[in-house]
Fold this sequence. Notes:
The chain has helices at 35-45, 162-178, and strands spanning 2-7, 11-15, 53-57, 62-65, 69-77, 81-82, 85-86, 93-95, 100-102, 108-116, 150-152. By secondary structure, the chain is α+β, with helices and mostly antiparallel strands. The chain has one domain (2-178). The strands form two sheets. It has a six-stranded antiparallel beta sheet, with no helix packed on it. A five-stranded antiparallel beta sheet has the order 2-3-10-5-8, with helices on one face. Helix 1 (35-45) packs antiparallel against helix 2. It is globular and about 45 Å long. The model is unreliable at 157-163 (pLDDT under 50). Keywords: ATP-binding, Hydrolase, Nucleotide-binding. InterPro entries: CT_A_B, PxpC.
Amino acid sequence: xxxxxxxxxxxxxxxxxxxxxxxxxxxxxxxxxxxxxxxxxxxxxxxxxxxxxxxxxxxxxxxxxxxxxxxxxxxxxxxxxxxxxxxxxxxxxxxxxxxxxxxxxxxxxxxxxxxxxxxxxxxxxxxxxxxxxxxxxxxxxxxxxxxxxxxxxxxxxxxxxxxxxxxxxxxxxxxxxxx
Length: 179
């Protein structure tokens, strides 16, 4: 199962939690610019909070799917749509085989995140699948995503109801901290 980039965004990359502990060897931590939004996208689809996803900067890409799946979009409002039907942020969205997901210029925010149920099935380098263009890494983890890139999606279990309870608990904890 894969998703394919059919139109590039301004700066679309793969990001996860980043590389911790390798700065002394010349590798930056990298990782998602908006860690909270990336984490929330993963939790909404039932992934581990640190799973690799797609980070979009200012203008998002157009993506096609070759299988049914579930996605979530968080962060910047890039007016995501499928067949001109606008997709809400922060919700699990059913994607059907052949659907084309299109993003536009951000109305608010700068970084948007696309998480796919199961996560992206990419290699880890020094404990992370985050893109670091200046590090000279070969392949998809060393550059922004371009037209024709195909990203494999991990096969996963069905979403469990407990995910909703985890999200609720997370929001309750944040709410009580602000009181």
